[in-house]
Amino acid sequence: MAISYKKLWKLLIDKDMKKKDLEAVSGVSHYTINKLNRGENVNVDIIARICTALGCEPNDIMEIIPGIQAGEQK
Hints:
- With 74 residues, the chain is mainly alpha-helical.
- It has helices spanning 6-14, 19-26, 30-37, 44-54; strands spanning 2-4, 63-65.
- It has a two-stranded antiparallel sheet.
């Protein structure tokens, strides 16, 4: 099972934000943004900080992709 953050990147586009803007408003590090970009696991606290900053819920920024291992691309 893998996690996809494509919804997060689409939400940023819809809000006319860049990843750097997300770092600033959420307080999430550049390293963590890179982990999200690679589809790697992050702590639930990070997801909560991003959701709080963007005014959304976790299912608005991520989805579980069954049958694919973490780190694999679909």
